[in-house]
Amino acid sequence: MTPEEMESRIVRYGDLIPCKTAFIDAHTPGSDQKENFTIIGGGVSESADQHVHIKDTPGFNIGAAGQPPKCRNSLHSHRTAEVFYVHKGKWRFFWGRYGTAGEVTLEEGDIINIPTGMFRGFENIGTDYGMIMAILGGDDAGGGVIWAPQVIEDAADHGLVLAETGKLYDSKKGETLPEGVKPMTVLSEAALKNYPEVSVDEVVPYYVGRYLDMMALGADQPAKIIGEDALIRDKPGFETELLTRGSLDEEIHSSHRHHILMVHEGHWIIGWDAGTKTLAPGDTCAVPPGLAYSLKPSMTGTCSMFRVINTDDPAGPTATDLN
To answer: pTM above the 0.85 mark?
Structure first.
């Protein structure tokens, strides 16, 4: 692989292209300043305006959400895993039919694997623009987003209608549903009973990893964060590790699986037989199967990155599904 080919597999944090009309709540007050980023794979954006940086998927999708203070993402659900780690800022994650069943606050480096089958949302509660990085299970990310009924109703009041096809139409732009296409059906009360109201004690101890704890686990070896025998025990179609300065060795890594490198802190050098590239905080690198590579920090100070690896597990409901 040439240096140019490797660069095409790196999405630089400073080059991320946002979409401000990605979802049905794009005009809803309190959610209308969101920016959605699709880094690897098609993601779950409902807008044709969404830019996709790397279209090929490794069995899961990588995205991000950027929001100013007090901006929130509305209540929704997914059919496959949704994992977030906080890259910048302080965030509140909440869940339940109305977002009142439970909540947890995450800070930089913290990670949460949100169980499938429950409504969830998140809000930037920090004082500056915040960024959370996301891993969505499946090549098609579970076929889209399932919105809480009130989100669809509020969106209609502000000019946005989601079609049954999953495409968004904006009446403020003069758009209307095509002939023969119906609006997305709002979940019935009977269907809503399948979405549990889960307590904090059922979520936080099992689905949240704190950065300092993970750094301690990764002090002298890669820390297993999500996986069958990891800190967060789950099999969502991918495994997640945290790499630190102390967990590195001089070995050359080569695998028949995809390795997605997501840098949180510090600068790293990835090397392979044809050259080297430097990865900075927020950068995402898609290492293809079969490529032998090495990693090392390029500077002093704290260094950490998440490495996500595809597995043979189905990207359906997680092993500890709460339904």
So the answer is: yes
The answer to whether 101 touches 197, Cβ cutoff 8 Å, is yes
Which residue do the tokens 């004690």 mark?
Answer: 201
Structure tokens at 290: 């079969």
Residuewise pLDDT in 10s, the chain (323 residues): 999 999 999 999 999 999 999 899 999 999 999 999 999 998 888 888 899 999 988 999 999 999 999 999 999 999 899 999 999 999 999 999 999 999 999 999 999 999 888 999 999 999 999 999 999 998 876 567 899 999 999 999 999 999 988 889 998 889 999 999 999 989 999 999 999 899 999 999 999 999 999 999 999 999 999 999 999 999 999 999 999 999 987 678 788 999 999 999 999 999 999 999 999 999 999 999 999 999 999 888 899 999 999 999 887 655 444 43
φ, ψ of residue 122 to 5 degrees: the values are -150, 155
Q: How far is CA 88 from the centre of its chain?
A: 14
Residue ranges, comma separated, of all CATH 2.60.120.10 domains in the chain are 3-208, 211-310
The DSSP 8-state label assigned to residue 320 in this structure reads T
CATH topology of domain 211-310: Jelly Rolls (2.60.120)
What's the first-to-final CA gap in the chain, in angstroms? 45
- Any residues with CB less than 8 A from the CB of 4 and at least 6 apart, and which? none
From the candidate CATH numbers 3.40.50.300, 2.60.120.10, 2.60.40.10, 3.40.50.360, the one assigned to the domain spanning 3-208:
2.60.120.10
**CB-based contact 89:163 (threshold 8 Å):** no
